[in-house]
Amino acid sequence: MPKFKHGISVKKEAPANFLTDPLEGRSTLRPANVLVYGWVGEKHACVDLTGVSPLVELTTGDFTVGQAALKSASSKVAKHERACSNNQHAFIPFVFDTFGFLAPDAVNILKRVQRVMHSNVVSP
Questions:
Q1: Domain locations along the chain
Q2: What is the value of pTM for the model shown?
């Protein structure tokens, strides 16, 4: 039976209180679909999960695999990264398209989770 040393600590739909607009008294930006504790050094990471259709790019000219996902990831970073950084959090867009393309940050997250899982399973 395998034994586990440690894992990745997360919270789904975590409130990001530093993104609350004081005038409105409510969160206007919600990047933390998943909050990963201690992901980057001692910083927690706000992970924004986004799925996009690559077909939206068909009307804008040449079709390029992954273009819609990469554009969405870039837009998410522009919108949320500064607020997260100003509050000592990392921001990671986990963006994929419905044809299966994963943006680079999504691939990096999955590779890291795989490494952690692999290193945590100790054979008897």
A1: 3-122
A2: 0.79
